[in-house]
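Bug #2210: token dump truncated for 4-oxalocrotonate tautomerase?
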Amino acid sequence: MPLVRISLSDSYQQETIDFVSSSIHQALLEVFCIPDDDYFHIIESLCEEHLKYPNEYLKIKHSSKIVYIQIFASKGRTIRQKEHLYKTITDNIKSNADIPPNEIIILLTEIEGKENWSFGNGAIQTIKHI
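Reproduced locally. Full output below:
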């Protein structure tokens, strides 16, 4: 179960926010092969004063269009899969929401052990996929 947290400016229209979310989910379906109903997203629309970033970092420019994406997922993917995921997310968002790649910040946090997830009912469930 990837858990995704998306933080972006409240200046974005709801349609754009929905495109960002669905773009990430489509990439996770394609690259991490998650089930279609494994769709857990937290979306935070923040006033621009609550989004902090440098105008440029690592020679990449940023603006108020910045989108932060945090993905918590079970450990076990290769570096190649992770690279492919980041590229697919960025390409999907660019084509679906017209947000340039330089504005997309992605952080993947890997969770080791299935016992570190509960999908509800206060229990550890058996997961058949990573």
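Output looks complete on our side. The radius of gyration is 15 Å. Marking as cannot-reproduce; reopen if the truncation happens again.
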